[in-house]
Amino acid sequence: MNTIRSLQLMQYGGPDTVRIADLPAPVAGPAQVLVRVHAAGVNALDWKLREGYVKDAFPLPLPAVLGIELAGVVEQVGSDVSLFKVGDRVMGPLGGLGAYADLVAVDADKLAVLPEGLSMVQAAALPVAAVSAWQSLHLAGPLKAGQRILIHGAAGAVGGFAVQFAHQAGAHVSATALGSHADYVHGLGADHVIDYQTSQFEALVSDIDLVLDYVGGDTLARSWSVLAEDGVIVSTASPAILASTPAGRRGLWFMNQPDAARLADIARQVAAGRLQSQVAAVVPFEDLPAAIERSRTLPQMGKTVVDFLR
Ligand SMILES: NC(=O)c1ccc[n+]([C@@H]2O[C@H](COP(=O)([O-])OP(=O)(O)OC[C@H]3O[C@@H](n4cnc5c(N)ncnc54)[C@H](OP(=O)(O)O)[C@@H]3O)[C@@H](O)[C@H]2O)c1
Asked: Which residues form the Enoyl reductase (ER) domain (predicted)?
């Protein structure tokens, strides 16, 4: 039997509850392609799943293979798939779990072809973070030039793209980040960067039309006071926003939706140098359990990517 490496969550808990283990190689279903994974993005969802924080929203039969996005080469094509052929370089979100494995069967409609000049590592950083940034920025309605936007977690994987998209749209962008990340966030297009460790953002900004909350918790709770009267908060981090939005205010919970066309467009912009994609660290497969833990505990600018070929 052909076996492959995978990273599995054995039970909810700390770093030692994830383990590298062999699995039988999968085959592509009729609407799927089988991808030989070259790189996969590490997401905050990995440690949230591991800890069991989101087990009600994402109930998992354990053990479960973690990982939600990948880049690799098509090795087999399902009978109903005409969009891809063996040998294509593809990237995408799974719309579920299982990307931390050498071979993954993926729904073909979630995948996009890598543009010329984009590496597998660069590609694996895009499907969740960049598309979530775009979708969350536009969730509350069309953007207007001059709109005042506050982005929490601006140095993170999602935040870094959101700052750039908001700046491109002509918004006035305020952003919160660690002071040591301020130059990076300014460089992405933020007009005003607030060090969340030394300053209270609510003392420094007001009349905000749109808050993008990529942090949650207390940061979300304190953000209602900075909103303009008809302002809105979109949170990717706290589903509690649905129950905690004060009467008369507008708060939206965001859930990423795979969008292959948007992903392809963003990837072309990155390959052409019009959009910056910050890869904070590239780690080998064996380092994944530790990398997931570091994404929970250490400050980071941008995205960690696991390189399966290292
Ligand atoms: N619902 C969905 O569909 C969806 C999709 C994608 C992501 N998400 C969620 O969205 C959030 C962001 O994702 P991500 O991939 O960008 O995570 P990330 O790369 O870990 O970024 C989070 C950023 O938040 C910053 N931060 C921490 N505490 C902060 C504070 N008090 N004020 C301002 N910034 C603070 C960190 O900055 P420093 O390093 O500067 O401390 C880090 O850069 C996560 O909770 C993730 O689970 C949800």
From this structure: 13-306
